[in-house]
Amino acid sequence: MSQYGALRIGLIWQRLSGFIDEAAQVFLRTSFSSVVRDNWDMAVGLLDRRGRQIVQSSKSVPSFVGTMPHTLACMLERLPAERLEPGDVLICNDAWFGTGHLNDITMFKPVFRGSELVAFIGSVFHSVDIGGAPSVEARDAFEEGLTIPVCRIVVRGEEDPLVIGFLEANLRAPRDTLGDIRAQFAAYDQAERRLLALLDAEGIDDLEALVDDILARSEHSMRAAVEALPDGSYRDELWVDGFDAPLKIVCTVTVDGSDLRIDYEGTSPQVPRPINSVLNYTTAYTNYAVKCLLDAGTPNNDGTFRPVRVSAPAGSLLNPNRPAPVWARHLSGHYVPPAVFGALAPILPDRVIADCGSPLWSAYFQGRHADGRPFIKMFFMNGGHGARQGHHGPACLSFPSNVATVSIERFEASVPLIVTEKALLPDSGGSGRYRGGPGQRLSFEVTGGHPVTMTIRHERVKFPPRGMLGGGPGARGRDLINDRVIPAKGRYALAPGDVVTFETPGGGGFGAEADGGADR
């Protein structure tokens, strides 16, 4: 029998959620890099002393909130909890422990109440540079940059100069990355104060007992949603662009009472190019898809996903063996939600959406300012959103990732490029009773006197976003330099005056088109 009533649990959970959102705002407002400050490519979370996720910032990248518990578990295998002290902060970016590629750095601060460890405050953020060469030609993970092993970056409240030193020695932009890391230290300190104050104010002597209750309620809610589905196995498969040849993703969802098993048997083997998705990233986006479909309104925590089991063959595109290259793992991982939606469409036609114009498109620009200062800058862009029952797809809205797009003015003020065009692509959304969202056309001109190196890794230029339940596909994407079509995965040297153009894919349509055309 719970010692906490439902009303009290709800109030406490809202307070927990509130101070974690507050900590995320501290991180954003004190961060150095545009990818955190403007793109929100980050997450902050609270986990109990056993590493179970309780709550995370409401504006977070879905994969990050899904991978944090796995990362902490890997950290505690190497640095057991009994060896931790007040003021410590752990750090790691190992792709197989973390979010699936080296650019995402995960950190945790243990929270002590007196001498007792009670919780962990964690965060993940994307560092634009992590050393190495962000190349679409990388053949193993060693080419992709610096791997930070599990270690303490802060020891009893003092930064470890050795860890700071090897970061500074390996990064092209250490000021931004270290600035973002220290911004998280400030967020941790505030969240720690808020948590301890909440425990005192609410008279909570055992946080773990409260967490047991919260997780059990979340698990009950998800199990009820799964149990409402008809038992059986449901399958979908889709083709992705790949590199030298198309690749296949196969998803089988099995409903068995209140248990849900999702398996990717039949998916293509891993490839020697950096598009492999490690299992924890695959699992995170699988869980996200299930949460969106079945139980979107309840708290997102470890209890929610107890009914779900995810598997993929070892050595496959969605569960590669070390040291497979994984830098652009989202080019495979972002196909996981549409595969889950496609499998469950026959039994959940009123909840699924058609394919979106993702995986997320981005471009890396690297070069020098007029005064010789180096820069490296990312720009995110979105294709059209898929349509769903009763709704046309929105234009240029990201899914399954939800990173924001930096404003054009802020981007132009930071690099020697200008945006010469930003327009919707007419008729790029898929046809159907409900139309897919249109993609967009963006053009960038090099205005400085130095060449600029551009790296892109884009999908949906061969296989367009699929329509759903009779809807038509969206338009394919295209990349161009000076109006000449170029391969969508590559590294290019742009001369002063060159113009690069991106045409992002349109979203898929939903439902067979009515006699009088699409619903207005």
Question: Would you summarize the structure shown here?
Answer:
By secondary structure, the chain is an alpha+beta fold. The protein is 27% helix and 24% strand.
Quick tags:
520 residues; alpha+beta; seven-stranded antiparallel β-sheet; five-stranded antiparallel β-sheet; 10 helices; 20 strands; 24% strand; globular
Class based on secondary structure composition and strand pairing: alpha+beta
Intertermini distance: 53 Å
Mean pLDDT: 93
Low-confidence stretches are: none
The 3D shape can be described as globular
**How many helices in DSSP terms?**
10
- Radius of gyration over alpha carbons? 23 Å
Largest sheet entry: 7 strands, antiparallel
Helix and strand run: HHEEHEEEEEHHHEEEHEHHEEHEEEEEEE
Strands of the widest sheet, in order across it, are 2-1-5-4-3-6-7
Helix content, binned percent: 25-40%
Number of strands: 20
- Give the DSSP E fraction (strand runs of 2 or more residues): 15-25%
